[in-house]
Amino acid sequence: MSQAFGKVAVLLGGSSAEREVSLKSGAAVHAALVQAGVDAHLFDPAERPLHELAQEGFDRVFIALHGRGGEDGTLQGALEFMGLPYTGSSVLGSALAMDKIRCKHLFQVAGLRTAPYKVVSQSQGFDCAEIMAQLGHVMVKPSHEGSSIGMAEANNAEELAQALEAAFKFDDEVLVEQWLSGREFTVSILSDKALPVIEMRTPSGFYDYQAKYQSSTTEYYCPADLSAAQTAQLQEMAEQAFALVGAKGWGRVDAMQGDDGEFYLLEVNTVPGMTEKSLVPMAAKATGVDFTALVVKILEQTL
After folding, report:
1. Is the pLDDT of residue 101 over 80?
2. Is 254 a known active-site residue?
């Protein structure tokens, strides 16, 4: 099977705010592919022009780029123009999943439960006091960033103004979402099917960048301590959300459980972290699929 892949480029690094995470994901993916006997090579688009993929005779691409320029459809469009098969979602699915605001609109229209929210634009006026009166305790999120970059909690109008100022450094449009204080979950998707649910617990209050990549106190429960009915419900919601935005192949859908016991969708990730300690590998391992086998399964989707 490894010979059927031909020469494979593992795209990592890039120039987004998630570069450091991507370098770790790409290195782990590359090591696993080499271990599986695949002719895999590291390729950082921030250091080399993309057209060298064609010049050097690559047959397909494993995308391990996170954030802008790798997860938002632009790279996918370039690869399609070059005629190179690639892992993960296509142009539309990548672009929609990366846009938190459009995702929220889609969830709402499709009747998938998500927290109440407001969209704030830097170019248009907004009233922080009015937003807080409507939503109360909120989470502020740049529309096009991942790994919780630029996110902040706000309890009053002054804190909201500060959070928006910080978020506007990343995006012109910002999502202001009503705070959910319940349990936090993620559902990994492989071959468009949900894997076991993982619960994340962190003393920091929410699963932010530090909790994801730097903290030693974050706890993971896989499978999550949920009833069979709750697990099935959350997995079905994740599969519906994944398909709704046009994502395909593999990825991850994040959700929270509110104080009312209901599940609320947060976002869809089309190129989530892929170190051996990341969430998708953790869920795959729970089904008996080790990291190397997981990476090969994802690459097989390009055949």
Report:
1. yes
2. yes
